[in-house]
Amino acid sequence: MVSWSTIQALLFTLGPLIIPRLYSYYKAIRTQVQTSTLPIRPTPAHVRYALNILFVASVLAATSTLPYFSPENIFALTSSRLHTPTDVLFTRIAGLRPQNQLTDFDNALRSRLTSLDGRCLYFTYGPSTLAHCPFCNSDDPGSFLYYALPSIISPHIVNLIVLGLATSTAISGVEGSRWRTMSALVGSVIAMVDGYMFHIYEWKANSRATSADELVFFYWRMRIARGLAIALLDAGFAGLMWASSTNRLFVVPVSSAERLETVTRVMESTRGKLGALGMVRNVTVRDETLRRKAEAYWKREGEFMGEVMDEKEVVEGIRSALGSGRMSVSMIEEEARKYAESVIGNPEISPIG
After folding, report:
1. C-alpha–C-alpha distance, residues 257 and 182, integer Å
2. Mind listing the pLDDT tens digit of every residue in the chain (353 residues)?
3. Which residues, 6 or more positions from 153, have their beta carbon under 8 angstroms from its beta carbon?
4. Most CB atoms within 10 A, among 68, 77, 187, 235?
5. Is the CB of residue 180 less than 8 Å from the CB of residue 168?
6. Which of 236, 176, 217, 178 is nearest to 49 (CA)?
């Protein structure tokens, strides 16, 4: 695996370049959130479908790292050392099997673990590769990587399909599709890093181990790291999708074209309502019965409001408001004039002659 000194060298080299950019990006996001005029909204229904898909995928990926779902490690299971004789090792395994009988898989694995190289390759690529690969040979360690590579990459491919489904326009709409390219890119990078770690790992690293505690189970460690990476990837993009769809973070301002379309749609809707109101008014005026009912209504309304305004309490309240200066007739007239001008405009009447 990559040594700590290599990681330190990378951090000292790339840190001064990456950290200022990350800080600038954080400040830009914070400024965007503070200056955004879009209100926070509930999670859209179609985005919830995508979040459910990513949640299930994340839980499944995290669950796959549990020991129950992990391939059996016969050295850890029997607390055996690297140099434990093959007969002793599989005698211990037989004692754990039903009726003390080795399985066909155990026998296939036994033939591979007779040499030190075979055992080191077992820790690197796992039991299935050693037992099932028909063309692999310890003289050519790369052949084991070629056989194991599809099983290493396949979880990432499945997860890329899940991410593509969750970020598709058909399921998550525009809110999810904006993360489609980034999720595919990050998922592909994680898959390549996973395969590259197997490529650069020194498969003979365990040849110097003298006790069971010194053995490094690289295959099982990478399996846990793979599951957790996929789970964090899905959970991370679910969080990004939720934050952007609710206008909490990564808010995309509404474009001029979208604003114009919205205003046009509202104007068309208002015009339709006004047209319908005009038709109703026209029918009411033309029909004698409806016209009489309308006239009777407004007559009763005028009489009722006149009675209200003539009541003693109302008269005293108006007189008190006018006397105390809380209400000004000139102010009311001015406000009425401005309102009328805003509705019907202020046409200039040119003198005749």
Report:
1. 26
2. 555 666 667 677 767 777 787 677 667 666 666 666 677 888 899 999 999 999 999 999 999 999 999 999 999 999 999 999 999 999 999 999 988 899 999 999 999 999 999 999 999 999 999 999 999 988 898 999 999 999 999 999 999 999 999 999 999 988 889 899 999 999 999 999 999 999 999 999 898 888 888 899 999 999 999 999 999 999 999 999 998 888 887 776 666 777 788 888 888 888 888 888 888 878 777 888 878 888 888 888 888 888 877 888 877 877 777 777 666 777 777 887 887 777 665 555 444 43
3. 191, 194, 195
4. 187
5. yes
6. 176
Structure tokens at 299: 């007559």
Q: Would you state the structure tokens that stand for residue 71, as one six-digit string?
A: 């391939």
At 293, phi and psi to the nearest 5? -65, -40
Q: What dihedral do alpha carbons 92, 97, 98, 103 form, nearest 10°?
A: -120
Q: Give Rg (Cα) of the chain.
A: 38
Look up residue 285 and give its two tokens: 């005026």
The token pair that represents 166 in the structure block: 């969750």
Enumerate the β-bridge partners of residue 137: 140
Question: What token pair was written down for 329?
Answer: 């007739």
- Rounded Cα gap, residues 162 and 284, in angstroms: 60
CA distances 99 to 1, 71, 76, 83, 93, Å, are 40, 21, 22, 27, 12
Q: Are 53 and 161 in contact (CB under 8 A)?
A: no
* Both structure tokens of 172: 């998550």
* Angstrom distance (rounded) from CA 232 to CA 244: 18
Q: 133-140: long-range contacts (C-beta < 8 A, 24 or more apart)?
A: none
* Residues in the chain, overall count: 353
Render 148-160 in DSSP notation, one character per residue. HHHHHHHHHHHHH
Residue 230 to residue 163: CA distance in whole angstroms: 10
